[in-house]
Write a structure and sequence with these properties.
Elements lengths: L1 E9 H5 L3 H21 L2 E6 L7 E6 L2 E6 L7 E10 L3 H8 L11 E6 L10
Antiparallel strand pairs: 1-5, 1-6, 2-5, 3-4
Length: about 120
């Protein structure tokens, strides 16, 4: 079963961390990626650029309209993700709890099963 572990970031929470906490967070991310690679459960991991570098694309009257900057009026934003392939939702949750962000109040870690174009959950 494939799951997306998404990381929801609040920049002010990250900015408030001490240098030691930031280093522990980075080391924790490295350790998480190494262990899930070794177990064969990690498919991909990506970090996303700051929302200020985003562009919102919508189509109005058949023409694309592009707006620069964050797409949401929110202090939280999608900062990255891990794509995993595990035996169960319980294992996905177990792994998500190991993501260092989960231990920092104000940051979010979400687990969602991947759907395919047929609209069926992978068994």
């Amino acid at each position: 079963m494939k799951f997306l572990i998404s990381l929801h970031i609040n920049q002010s929470v990250l900015d408030a961390l001490t240098e030691e906490e930031k280093e522990a967070l980075g080391n924790g991310v490295t350790a998480f990626m190494e262990s899930t690679k070794k177990s064969g459960e990690l498919i991909a991991a990506q970090a996303l650029a700051d929302p200020s570098q985003a562009a919102v694309v919508s189509v109005r009257n058949g023409q694309p309209v592009v707006t620069d900057g964050p797409f949401l009026e929110s202090k939280e934003f999608l900062g990255g993700y891990y794509m995993i392939d595990v035996e169960s939702k319980e294992r996905a949750i177990e792994l998500a709890a190991q993501v260092p962000d989960a231990a920092i109040e104000g940051l979010g870690v979400e687990v969602r099963q991947v759907m395919f174009s047929e609209g069926q959950l992978e068994a």
